[in-house]
Amino acid sequence: MKSLKIKQLSCALLLAMAAVISPAFAADYISAEDFAEANGISHQWFPIQKMLIMRKGLNSIKYRIGESSAMANEKEIKLSGVPRIQNNSIYVPIDSLQSVFVGSKIVPIVKMNPVTPNQDRTSGNIPNNPRPIAVTPVAITPAVTPVQVPNEIQPTQTSEAILIALRHSEREDHTRVVLEFSNNVTYKSDFKDGIYRLTISGCKNLIPTKRTNPVGRDIAKLDLNSGANREGLILTFTLNQKEKTPNIETVADPFRMIIEFPLGKPAVEQVATSTTPIAPPTIKTEDNEPKKVENIVKPQEMEKPPEINIEVPIEELKNKSFLGRTIVIDPGHGGSDKGFEAPGRPPEKTINLETARLLKIELEKAGFRAILLRNEDVSMSYRQRLSLANKSGGDLHISIHTGGSADSLKHGVACYTFTDKGIAHKTEMDESNPLSYDDVFEEWLTNKNTRFDLSEFFAKRINQRLTKHLQTDSRGVMKSPVLPLKFIMNPAVLVEVGMLSDKVEGKNLISDKYKEAIAKSITNAVIDFFNGIELK
User: Fold this and answer.
1) Domain span at residue 369?
2) pLDDT tens digits, residue range 257-282?
3) What share of the chain is helix, strand, coil (3-state, %, to 5)?
């Protein structure tokens, strides 16, 4: 009898072991999103194709749910297990990521739930916020087999500092810039030909939301970029003087870097050709008393916004699994870059930002997650916008602009998607950007069919909604080598919400109600986009 029970137990044990080591789960899995966020890797999910692309620098890997192979650095590799969607998350074999992103940070291994014979291994909802099921810490090394760490031994990870705030103030003989960090950092600086470069190590390459724009009397330009291999920060100040080196000191608790930029060269005073002082012109009044004429420059009078009342009902999102999707909003221009300007009207940068803020509100009301690349009037370089946009892991990207033309009769909305035609690519090489833009551009174009097709689909939805709700004309949906969309990983559209130069439309753009109608129209276009996706 005992022998029979032992045999039964042995058979049950063998069956359990067979279930654990089935081919679909032979590999150790990890959450793709958790791994990407821990290592600064951009990741983009394409729901129609069930395709995931992860990229850092020139290293990339492309998975398809349920397929046993992947494209790693444009070469096909066999996977130890198929990528899966489970519990609203994407899980991939850990060894495939090791081989592409060598030396990555500590991540958790996920114990996958077993699959029954009748269950589709590729089934599951479209992932939104991945969450691991059960975890065992492991450190990724170049080896193929991950090393298991006992649960009672918790690996430690040094936390990088974050640049919390960038503030400035103009003093009598210098401009003071204060950088406040959450922890200590190291730095090196150099000054040559009016360019002051500050390279900061030991911090995350994140641009602070709390910042002021120091461009002015002493500083002509400021660029914030990530360091080599996306580590640290590089601040490049273009100064209005080239002789005096800025002074820098550090203060602890909290750790701050205080930089004093010397006074820029004063404007050259005009010298009169005659030594005799020139008296201002005089006129005679009726009482024959001469009075001086004062040259008073009256400020430009701003137009009053028209009374506008446009009702835009918000559509219903049919598939609730798309709730929480991330939409990145890029308000064009900002800071010293004012964009198009029309007399008596706010500059384009102001209208772009106000419209973007309203769009964020409407998208969040509709159940989406919205991210603004800038939320105040600050200058942002193309590289800053690109870095922030791709790091956000958004599903859609909207660049908000306002058009302007010397032709005062030109009006209407227009949408643009990116094309590489008609653009010249120059190789840029420096300390902070060691990669050739030609190489990166060619790699970026590799997967253009999926991304660009979705971009065009999205652009048409935006154009239709704006012309319908605003009762305005369309200037078209066009492909163009527009810089704000270059290298954006997710489907991206640049939209000109109207012509600031037009007599009627330009005045409408001043109205808060009109900008609110624009925001609601674009929100409906986002809902149209997701309603147009069929999940199989």
Assistant:
1) 320-531
2) 999 999 886 544 343 333 444 444 44
3) 25, 30, 45
